[in-house]
Here is the input.
Amino acid sequence: MAAPVGELPDVSLVALFGIGAFVMRGAGCTINDMWDRKYDAKVQRTIHRPLASGQITPFQALVFLGGQLSCGLGVLLQLNNYSIALGAASLGLVIIYPAMKRFTNFPQLILGLTFNWGALLGWSAVHGTCDWSIVLPLYCSGVMWTLMYDTLYAHQDKDDDKKIGLKSTALYFGNESSRAALLSFAGCSTVALGYSGYMCDMNWPFYCGVAVASSHMAWQVMTADWDCRMNLNERFVSNNHVGAIIMSGILAGGGALI
Here is the structure.
C-alpha cells in the first residue's frame, strides 16, 4: 500500500521484512515457550514442545532467543531512523504477550497489537514516517482479524486452560457467545481495512479482495465446531488464504497487477 501507484513493492525491502517477520515471529514463539514451559507440559496439544518435554533446557532456549533477537536487530538497522525507533517500540509487546493469559481474558488482543505492528513499520520504512490516516485503520483491521482467528485457535485448548487457570477469549465468550463475537471482530476488521484502502486511494480490485476475505472469515466462524480441534485448526490455518486474498487485492488495487 505504501508503494508508488502502479508499481510493485521494492523487492529488497520486501525481503528484509520477510526475514524480519520470520525471525521476530520465531522470537515471540521462543519467549512464549519459555514463559509457558510448565503450563505446556499440562496441555495435550503442547505437551511435546521442546521445552515442555525437556528436549532442550531453558538456557539453550535463551541462547537461541539471543540469536533470533540479534538477527532481528540486524534487519531493523537496515531501515531509516524513524523505523528503527518504531520497530524497537514493539519489543515490549513481544516480551509481555506470553504472560497476559495469566492476567486478562483478552490475551488475544495483546497478540493482535504485537503481530500487526508491521502495518505501521511497513509504511514508515518506505516513507520515513507514518500516514496515520492509513496505517492506524490498517493496524486496527489486523488486530481485529487476529482476535477472530486466535479465538478459534484458543478454543482448542479451553478445557486444559480452564483446569490450569489460564485465561482466553475462548473461555470468556464460551461456546454460546463466540460466534457473535467473532463475527463482530471480522466485521470491524473488514470496515477498517476498507477505510484504510479508501484513504490510500485504492481501486476497485482492492475492495473485491476485501469482500472475498470478509466472506472467508464469515465462513470460518459460521462453520466452526467449538468442540472439535481438527475443525478449529483447519479454520485457523485457512487464514493463510485470507492473507493471500488481501495481499492480492492490495497489489491489484494499487495498479501493480493490472
Observations:
- The radius of gyration is 19 Å.
- The chain has 14 helices and no strands.
- The CA atoms of residues 158 and 171 lie 6 Å apart.
- The chain has one domain: 11-253.
